[in-house]
């Protein structure tokens, strides 16, 4: 692949051979390949050759027709790649210059940096926000999603250099679920010190699994709830002290579960009887914090019901309209309960999540989260496989 720069207004990165993007139009219609000959790079922008992209659950929901998105579009927002061209003054999150050859991941969002929300430290809610894999193809920004050989990374995107040798399978999901899990744990730590705390994670998908690993590394006792047996078993590998199936379980006694703890401390595994029995077996007197990562209304209700005095609930999974849950305001007030909504993340979250993966991937099976990888030309087959749910992530490799 030969890349040249020519000044045509902005620097125009010309590709030989052309970049290829898989374009999505509507449910039931196969992706169509689109050739892109060049990308105009303004100041602070970069053109990245994709090493690997992974299919997020939101991508599956879009293709299935469950969530709207502007079309035609290039889906995909979880990627790792290598810079092949840069505009002037392109820098990473720490202000270091970006150069061709740098291996990078980048945020799902493009933010202006100057609006009131950006200045308040919530750039993921920028008033002029754009998102990779969520935008209509437009002149000058055709390569705006991860299911392509190249992505045009715009100014206002958090870009983080990543180490060589870390598997792409561990790095690609960082720019969505992993960084969001980091943001959720950071939100909890603003209220609760996780050292020796009890954390309940509801939902053992990518966010829940990574939150489990991070919190365990911070010396929390993590309990994971998920109705799927395979996902519960995987959670134990990610550090959960105990797991349970939430279906048909009465949680009303959970706050008093450890009044008579067992003499032997539970060392990891599945406990019948739900959260009450699990707390007792782990010799914990209350749930200090909850990461709700499933989006299930019953799980949200459980989180609000079982969190203990002075505790915090981080709601992460409710990214679609699913109705309302009952809330007892007296319990929130008397229990000094904090409820936090977490959606996407900041540039600091992305950088810190990358550093965590770089140091943890050898001892925590992060790379196994991408359970299968197909070529870019078979992106429809990759989506069909992802929809079956047997893998946490399915990879799409444009180099294959």
UniProtKB/TrEMBL annotation:
<feature type="domain" description="Alcohol dehydrogenase-like C-terminal">
    <location>
        <begin position="207"/>
        <end position="356"/>
    </location>
</feature>
<feature type="domain" description="Alcohol dehydrogenase-like N-terminal">
    <location>
        <begin position="43"/>
        <end position="161"/>
    </location>
</feature>
<dbReference type="InterPro" id="IPR002328">
    <property type="entry name" value="ADH_Zn_CS"/>
</dbReference>
<keyword id="KW-0560">Oxidoreductase</keyword>
<dbReference type="InterPro" id="IPR011032">
    <property type="entry name" value="GroES-like_sf"/>
</dbReference>
<dbReference type="Pfam" id="PF08240">
    <property type="entry name" value="ADH_N"/>
</dbReference>
<keyword id="KW-0862">Zinc</keyword>
<comment type="similarity">
    <text>Belongs to the zinc-containing alcohol dehydrogenase family.</text>
</comment>
<dbReference type="InterPro" id="IPR036291">
    <property type="entry name" value="NAD(P)-bd_dom_sf"/>
</dbReference>
<dbReference type="InterPro" id="IPR017743">
    <property type="entry name" value="ADH_phosphonate_catab-assoc"/>
</dbReference>
<keyword id="KW-0520">NAD</keyword>
<keyword id="KW-0479">Metal-binding</keyword>
<dbReference type="InterPro" id="IPR013154">
    <property type="entry name" value="ADH-like_N"/>
</dbReference>
<dbReference type="InterPro" id="IPR013149">
    <property type="entry name" value="ADH-like_C"/>
</dbReference>
<protein>
    <recommendedName>
        <fullName>alcohol dehydrogenase</fullName>
        <ecNumber>1.1.1.1</ecNumber>
    </recommendedName>
</protein>
<dbReference type="Pfam" id="PF00107">
    <property type="entry name" value="ADH_zinc_N"/>
</dbReference>
